[in-house]
Structure formats: C-alpha cells, structure tokens
Amino acid sequence: MSVSTASNGGVSEEEGDDEPLSTGDIYFTLSNCRRRFLIQYLSRQEPTSVTELSRVIAAWENETPAEELSYDERKTVYTALLQTHLPKLDRMGVVEYDASRKHVRLTDRADQLRPYLELDQEGTDGDDAVPYGFLVWVLLGVAASGVLLGRYSVAGLEGALLTALSFGVAAGVSVGFVLAATETVSE
User: Fold this and answer.
1) Over the chain, what is the mean pLDDT?
2) How many CB atoms lie within 10 A of CB 39?
3) Cβ partners under 8 Å of residue 76, min gap 6
4) Helical packing angle, 33-42 and 23-30, nearest 10°
5) pLDDT at 86
6) Beta bridge partners of 95
7) What is the strand order of the sheet 103-106 is part of?
8) Is residue 140 within 8 Å of 170, Cβ to Cβ?
C-alpha cells in the first residue's frame, strides 16, 4: 500500500490484493452506511448490477420495501455509488467494479472487513444488530447503586456488597433479554 493521498478521500491506493487493508482504510470503508450495506448485500448476492444494489440499499436506508421506493430515492443512491463509493472500493481492492457493464462483486480482500460487520443477518430492517440491552441494564445498575449509596450513606463493605448486588441483578436481567432476543432471531 502506498501512502494515502488527499485526492482519493484518504484511501490508500491499491498496489496488491495480498496486502492487508490498513486500519485507516478499514475505518474509512466502514464509516459510511452505504458502503456497509453494499458489503453486507454483496456478501450474500454477488455479482450484482449497480441498479439492483442501489435499489436494495435505498430500501434499507429508507426502511421501506424496494417496490415502494420513489425514483429520486433510488437515483440518489445509484449516483452516489457510481460517483463515489464503487470507484473508491474498487481502488482499494475490496470490490471489482466493471464500469462498462455496471456490475460489482466483492473480492477476497473484503474478507478483512467481515470481523467488523455482522454479515449473518438477513438484512438491515432498522433493528439494532447490537444487543444494547446489556449496556442499558448495567447503566441502570450503576445508577441504582449510586442513588442508594448516596441516599443511605452506605459505605465500606455494605456499600461494596450493594454495588455488586446491583451489577449482578442488572447483568442477570440483561442476559435474559439477550437470550430471549437470540431465540427470536433464530426462529
């Protein structure tokens, strides 16, 4: 890989598909939801036309069925893919983009991005792929223990036990939510 240049939006120019993507290139690629959607879709349906790709991405972005999209919604994504995203990803060696046929497919180099994406989903339908329930319950446990400690001036061993109990309850509840969500997804 050569040094990044300003003319290509901070993307390192491709010198060989055998070299790993730089951390900067990975972050750049995944920083845009259209590029993430593109990689997710192509990981399941490749090769595909830019028209089909733009239709699917527009549907995901607008959280609407593809058949209900307006011309402008599809055209906006189509234009952005042709003018920005596909040329950059092609230069990076993440996709092979045939500009004359308007077809695109992932390369083996895209495999380096997979650990950062949850590609096993059926699609992005607006639901969060990350189980944020755990984080919410932990934060609630911290808040509850902080309120209790402040309100009742519990210190020392009792305070530590109360804090541990709060975290334990929060973690147990969140694990239950995660397991319930996992069962729902697998059905």
Assistant:
1) 74
2) 21
3) 58
4) 90
5) 94
6) 106
7) 48-49, 103-106, 95-98
8) yes
Angstrom distance (rounded) from CA 64 to CA 85: 22
Instruction: Please enumerate in sequence order all residues whose Cβ is within 8 A of that of 96, keeping only pairs 6 or more positions apart, or say none.
Output: 90, 104, 105, 106, 107
Rounded-to-integer distance, Cα 154 and Cα 162, Å:
9
∠ CA 152-158-162, rounded to 5°: 80
Residue 93, phi-psi category: left (phi > 0), alpha (psi -120 to 50), beta (remainder): left
For residue 61, the one-letter residue type is E
Taking every pair of Cα atoms in the chain, the longest distance, rounded to a whole number of angstroms, is: 72
Q: In this structure, what token pair is assigned to residue 141?
A: 């446990």
What is the pTM for the complete model shown? Answer: 0.55
Structure tokens at 73: 């919604």
In tens, the pLDDT along 119-142 reads 444 444 444 444 445 556 566 666
**Three-state DSSP class for residue 97:** strand
CA-CA distance, 86 to 97, in Å (whole number)? 7
Q: List the structure tokens of 25.
A: 């290139």
Of 45-59, 69-83, 86-100, 166-180, least confident by mean pLDDT is 166-180
